[in-house]
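Write out the 3D structure for:
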Amino acid sequence: MPANKKLKSVLIIGAGPIIIGQACEFDYSGVQACKALKEEGLRVILVNSNPATIMTDPEMADKVYIEPIHWRNIEKIIIKEKPDAILPTMGGQTALNTTLDLNRHKILQKHNVKIIGASIASIDMAEDRELFKNAMAEIGLETPHAYIAHSYNEAKIHQQEIGFPILVRPSFTLGGTGGGIAYNIQDFEEIVKRGLDLSPTTEVLIEESVIGWKEYEMEVVRDKNDNCIIICSIENIDPMGVHTGDSITVAPAQTLTDKEYQAMRDASIKVLRKIGVDTGGSNVQFSVSPHDGRILVIEMNPRVSRSSALASKATGFPIAKIAAKLAIGYSLDELSNEITGDVIPASFEPTIDYVVTKIPRFAFEKFKEADSRLTTQMKSVGEVMSIGRNFQESLQKAIRGLEIGADGLDKPEIKHRSDKERTDIIKNNLRTPNAYRIFFIAEAFRVGLSSQEVNELTGIDNWFLSQIKNVIELETSFSGKNLSTMTAEDLKLLKCKGFSDVSIAKMTDSSETEVRKARERFKIKPVFKRVDACAAEFEATTAYMYSTYDSECESSPSSKKKIIILGGGPNRIGQGIEFDYCCVHASLALRDHGFETIMVNCNPETVSTDFDISDRLYFEPLTFEDVMSIIDLEKPDGVIVHYGGQTPLKLANRLKEHGVKIIGTSPEAIDIAEDREKFKHLVEKLKLKQPTNRTATNLESALKSAEAIGYPLVVRPSYVLGGRAMEIVANEDDLRRYMGEAVSVSNDSPVLLDKFLNDAVEVDIDIISDGQEVFIGAIMEHIEEAGIHSGDSGCSIPPFTLSEDIIVRLKEQVTQLALELKVIGLMNTQFAIKDNEIFLLEVNPRASRTAPFVSKSIGVQLAKIGALVMSGQKLSSLSLPKDVIPNYFSVKEAVLPFSKFPEVDVLLGPEMKSTGEVMGVGNSFGEAYFKAQRAAGVILPKTGNVFISVRDKDKPLVCDVAEELIKIGFSLYATRGTQVYLEEKNIKCKRINKVKQGHPHIVDMIKNGDVHLIINTTEGAVSIKDSFSIRKEANNNNVCLTTTISGAKAFCKAILFIDNFDVLDIESRHASLKTSSH
């Protein structure tokens, strides 16, 4: 039992949906905490709203609640479950802030629930900028010169004392949300006002700028007996001014002297003692002046953070698991580090004999209007980590793991007319931090800039610059050489420095295959080293490995029956945690059925890269070269490529050509589903319907096709994920612009044109097939009409408007498709229903992002069963129900990152923009939709003013919504066209000016806080442009907004449940399912 004998049950709060600044690292920490506490015999209750997490699997805790992380919902769970304690340090800022809310409303006190892992006083002292600043002064540590402000006028007075540039940091926000650097008074006003608005305590810190200083982080763990250990030091390559989540970072720190390291180590421990963190992990951030070595403390997180996940994966030290045990009363010396088979105690500081590099992944291509400069507010959507024996190897491996089309320090695309213009463009990209700066640094050395010049432009330490310069010098010296003249020493040198086969092929004007053959001829192949937390001082019993070009291989592969699972790489929009969830489930299911499972992935935030999920873990980029090296060594009985999104799918054909056995649906079937012409033949053969469509390879053929099909059209490039560059075009002008701007078209990559089905209902269906039988998981009805990407649309299980006849026909069609494609495993299909006709939109014979949501809704774990079917089992042997008919509603809602990009229009379309998802479960559609909205951070109003502005064809449809809102108690406002229409239908509505009609207009009303709900539908470029300011202000002022009529109808149903909802754990929901046996 735990050291604290009084504790019998603990409530763990999760982090909710994946957002920028808070990604799946909290699923990883939550899973570890659940396991750690269950091991100790405690009853664990978990609450989280994100269905795509492993932590919300029913077996992870004794009771799992998929509920909004909001104090009102958690209060009901506390009343029901009566936990002894609450652990808020595993769910990021969301969990901390929610715990503070519960405390503020005296709920914890009333129900006698103790906070463990961190005290309210320590959370406040670390998170409240003023308290933290004062605390640091008391222990003699310096912080930047700063003031606290609670209003813009107060901030302005302090700004005059500090001058420009000046840093603004809001209190209690996540990922630097609302913060920024101001260089002038106009920027200052905008950032301060936004920061005050986003801070839950309406408080910002106005701080002297330390931009250009070096930035470091210390990951520290402390226990109740004052044992303190540094897990690892992390150095940001980018200097201060770029959020650490957006910086390229390296562990261990490379440019600290021992004296500086010891000073920082001592300071970190002092900070933890002062703040009062004595039961877990914390992260302390420092800034060091490159001029005089002055050290400042910037901030600390009194919880498990993004850096904790990185530090855990970098060292093999399970921070979250140890922190959870410390929270229930253990001390470090009583615990052991299992990576060495429990040989060393957890009080032993990890030591590493390799270099770890983390590079963030961005999604600016999804938000063209967004400011792509990197500042103190985090903007990246994912990250990749790599391990190498030296910095150069580690950096180049990380770059190719990013999957942005770079194989190493590739040349950036520069459109220039002269050498001077080219140099100017390079210098501008060095001065302003951006997603591609590392490539411009390499290019600067190619064009002859010195390390000193690059250092002055970037503020990046000369040590890192000299390492990059050396890589470019090597590249230059081998460029133009003939591969056949290269010696074994030449090739070995390049491989040791991290050059990929593709990079060497580019330098020597040969192919990747030829380089691979040359390596094989010289017997140059990677060896695999183990991550062991002790620099090989003790033997590692855990098979957690990375590749390098060294002498001794520590892999020791077995001769067991084994399956390799290829993961999804870095998170990005369109390919997120849902795919990692599927990979983890595949590994767990196959392990249970006697296979040795081997995971290959390079994402440090995920559960799949936890060393105890699979029998063996290779932390490697998912490129053909890196994956083949592992396959050559392990010789698996099969490889799964269907669970990691497009990342492993792109490798399927080449792996098959090299004799690799891909289990499950064949690469040929995947190709039929992806290839437009082959797919058309399949549809015709099965006598199914598709929207009229054509393929175009140039503008002329596109215009001809459009004329034949008729506008509006959906246009997109072939072979994409997440609706990349997909648009609805209403006329010829729009099509010409799209063909000119949005895509590069060729015979190899044609553009696809489909007739757009206006007002159709869209449906997703997830199934499992074993080639003979088909199990239908669920039919999901989209809440928004067709035209919004399925990843951004809310959806409901069971469907809420479809007739029984349509449902039967859908099941027949999806079964036909699965059997014809010979699907073995999972398949997702999308249909549109218009005027009682079913149109097939697309088929994905692989795991899709809906698999976790469906699994949680119906109580059948699709990814696990899919993996078993892929390994050769039949559905009939897996005792599945024939049909699952839920007697409750599950609603999935998308979570969008517009608060990070205030300049972007929030209007949704066929290109996916959401970073995550939430799930609401209720006895009615209205209750489930209300919970999904609350979980997504949408606070629905109970009463107030509604502004309605809809396109002409929606006017008849909006009448029912308007009447319903009046009945609930809202007052209606509209611009002229909509107001006249409603008045004619005897619906009471006041008129308000459009922006161009002059003050007082609708945007004034929003800014004054007089609008509580907005229904705004638009069509055509002009109307979208005219109403942009309305949507922008709604987003900036947190006003509820829907841009579809169906969304407005759903809001009306949801509003009725604001004070009238219930909570029930997911196992009890599943127990109530009506099933008919197989």
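The chain has 38 helices and 42 strands.
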